[in-house]
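In this supplementary section we document a worked example of the pipeline. Step one takes a protein sequence of length 314 as its only input; no multiple sequence alignment statistics are reported here. Step two produces a three-dimensional model, which step three serialises into structure tokens for compact storage. The input and output of this example are shown verbatim.
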Amino acid sequence: MAVSGLNARIEAIPAGVRGVLLVVLASAFFATMHNAIRYVTFDEGVDPFVVAFFRNFLGLIVFIPIFTRMGIGVLRTPKIHWHMGRALLNSASMLSWFTALSLMPVADATAVSLIGPVFIALLAMVLLKEHVGPVRWIGIALAIIGGLIVVRPGFAEVSSGVWLVLFSAVAVSNSKVIAKVLTRTEGPATIVAYLTLLMTPITLIPALFVWQTPTLEQLAVMAVIGVCGTVGHLLFVQAYKLADISLVEPAMFTRMVWAALIGYLLFAEFPEFWTWIGAGVIVVGTTLLARKESRSEPRPVSSVGSTVNPSIRD
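The serialised model returned by step three reads:
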């Protein structure tokens, strides 16, 4: 009875508000995951490639019961090469992202990564011939300006970690464009299944060159990484089902807030003033992009967002 009463209270909250709250909660899980990655790579010395493999391996274990229920039919596709290309891009993005987290504070990496939607918009314009009107151009310009404020080339050294984050954003943006093409003929379950099944063996190959068997404590931390990533991803999926992307996109800024708070508690690392300003400008720009996107695409696409949202490289 108490559970049903709680469910009734939750259902009484407007869907848009629930969507925003879920994004805030998902952001907390991802920030925890990213700081756990920094801990196990920076403090514990585990190679990022090994951590990336275990992230995918643990995710695959979680996915096996779901895959069993879906059946082998979910793997029927005439576009296996597209799925393989997408898995390679996601793997490259994850490897570079995990390496970046071992080199720089999580909040700084998060701030730079917020520029990701700009790459998606530009790639969609070039590869998918999507129309980019004045509002999108303004959003792109603002996000780029925000990125420059964060990085401040010429005023501060652009570290290798920043370049890795940018490469990760470009790689995952290409993956999202491929996912958008695949949704024209493939179901979301097929897209997710292939990505989950392929990324584990792909990330195993580079991990073997730097292999180090983790301790039980390190395995426990990597289990936390896997759980936080899976839970965060599911929360994002539900958020995009409940609310338009234009409504929940500004809440993505809380990833920066959570990352800074947890990073300060664990590593005494806190982003400087210009990082906050730049991240804020980026969020304004990407929100303009999201608002235009939500008006130009039918609502059902948000359900596909579960396969293409930013958490996919995490």
